Amino acid sequence: MSRNREPVKSLVLYHLFKWSVVSPMLHGYFRGRIYGADRVPQEGPLIVVSNHASDFDPPILSNCMRRPVAFMAKEELFRVPVLKDAIRLYGAYPVKRGKGDRAAMRAALSYLEQGWATGLFLQGTRTPDARITAPKLGAALIAAKAQAPVLPVSLWGTQAIVKKGSALPKPVPVTVRIGEVLDPPKSTSREDLETFTATCAGIINDLHDLGR
To answer: pLDDT digit string (tens) for 186-197?
Structure first.
């Protein structure tokens, strides 16, 4: 039987990190704007899909959901004492290089079964302009298998946070726009997955086009 909420320890760590670090930086340093936060379901499994342009995207995205969001993280981080326990509580799960797709899918399905929100970047990698041009079907497949609702989100401005050669993040404006919750694909057929993925990509790009 699936749970309806993340573990209490994870919720406590999430709020501690959010209010002490991420939220002050987002709203102060990046002058963050968030639209549509009231659309985020606060209980039950949820798949959050977005564009991706910066290493700052996962904590910013999780912060704006008002609940922990489980993301994949490279396996090496889970070999660091103390850190490995902390990031597991925060929702991170390890993925081996070269085996990311299958490992990520198994982990994402497991977290959804436990009542977590799971974050997936629709293109699977960062893009220099933060737009989605070649979306992957992984998020749609996970949604179809788990029959979990999907929430499209646009991150605007994060591609400018870190510039090549710069040691510090730049205080650029960041805007997060949250779309409407979508029902998952009805099946795992390629046609259904492609249609659903194209819909998500279109929504996210349209939200991104709204700019600041």
So the answer is: 999 999 999 999
Per-residue pLDDT reduced to its tens digit, 59-114: 899 999 999 999 877 777 778 787 777 777 777 777 776 555 677 788 889 999 99
Listed residue (169, 163, 183) closest to 46, CA to CA: 183
Better-predicted residue by pLDDT, 74 or 118 = 118
How many whole angstroms separate alpha carbon 25 and alpha carbon 158? 13
* The pair of three-digit structure tokens given for residue 174, joined into one six-digit string: 């960041």
Which residues, other chains included, contact 158 with Cβ-Cβ below 8 Å and sequence gap of 6+?
A: 53, 54, 56, 57, 60, 130, 174
Q: Is 98 exposed, middle or buried (0-12, 13-18, 19+ CB in 10 A)?
A: exposed
Determine the Cα–Cα distance for residues 48 and 209; give it in Å rounded to an integer: 19
Q: What is the pLDDT of residues 9-24, one digit of tens each?
A: 888 889 999 999 999 9
107: nearest Cα among 121, 92, 97? 92
CA distances from 154 to 51, 106, 123, 199, 212 (A): 6, 25, 13, 14, 11
The one-letter amino acid code at 18 reads K
Residues whose CB is less than 8 angstroms from the CB of residue 61 and which lie 6 or more positions away in sequence, other chains included: 48, 50, 69, 119, 153, 155, 176
Give me the residues paired with residue 150 across strands: 47, 182
Q: Which helix (H) or strand (E) holds 136?
A: none
